[in-house]
Known about the structure:
This protein has strands at 3-9, 18-23, 26-33, 36-41, 55-57, 60-62, 69-71, 76-78, 88-94, 97-102. By secondary structure, it is mainly β. The protein has a single domain, classed as Rieske [2Fe-2S] iron-sulphur domain (Rieske Iron-sulfur Protein). A hairpin with a 6-residue loop joins strand 6 (60-62) and strand 7. The chain binds FE2/S2 (inorganic) cluster (FES). FE2/S2 (inorganic) cluster (FES) binds at residues 44, 46-47, 49, 63, 65-68. Keywords: 2Fe-2S, Iron, Iron-sulfur, Metal-binding.
Amino acid sequence: xxxxxxxxxxxxxxxxxxxxxxxxxxxxxxxxxxxxxxxxxxxxxxxxxxxxxxxxxxxxxxxxxxxxxxxxxxxxxxxxxxxxxxxxxxxxxxxxxxxxxxx
Length: 103
Ligand code: FES
């Protein structure tokens, strides 16, 4: 059964911002895209940069390391070599908190 965990208060992540959280030992990036929250593993599968150091534009995050462009909706990257996709998670908004569903 899926495990639902509280991550942050909605006010901690204004629209256009993203942050990495340690959730039970997993580093997960949470991004607020115009009020829609996305969650994806935070560590780039290229050379392990933290994606929260990159740039958020719409539903895409550009890695500060070498410029891979990650799609928060799919966990896939556009890059000049194929990168292992990152896991995405379902987010839930409840009582002013952002929750995510872990399997
Ligand atoms: S570490 Fe992300 S593109 Fe190289």
